[in-house]
Amino acid sequence: MKLLHICFLSLIFALTVEVSASKYDKESASDLYKKATKQLKEEDYKNALKTLKKYTKSKKRDSDGWTLLAFTNRKLKNYDEAESLYNKALRLDPKNKVAIEYQGELFVELNRLDEANANLAKLRQLCPNSCEELEMLEKYISGSQVKSW
Fold first, then answer.
1. What is the pLDDT of residues 76-90, one digit of tens each?
2. CB 90 within 8 Å of CB 103
3. Looking at the domain assignment, is residue 148 inside a domain?
4. pTM (2 d.p.)
């Protein structure tokens, strides 16, 4: 009986150590975000997708995270998913200029120019003296710029 008790305690200890170690093995939200942006800059969209799914799971209210997840899906040609995720990002922050720009780029890619121009109009309201997002979407709509990241 004593041997069984020792084996049971050893098992409990081993499980406790494994569970404790797994807590420390997890990447922080900040680390995930940095990792994802690095993957996106390297155009490693498949890995960025995995990383951003983890990130948005931990930061459900971060409009920027959802925007990057939508962008990644768009680059992987998952257009329906990208559109849904841009909408989610904009529900969280209707003034997210990056989300508005990227969603406009999606509309251009889907040949929905009226919607792309509507996003351009939103950016003109948010940036009366211009801003990078407004200029980038103008160029994307006109076809003079193909943006990857």
1. 999 999 999 999 999
2. yes
3. no
4. 0.80
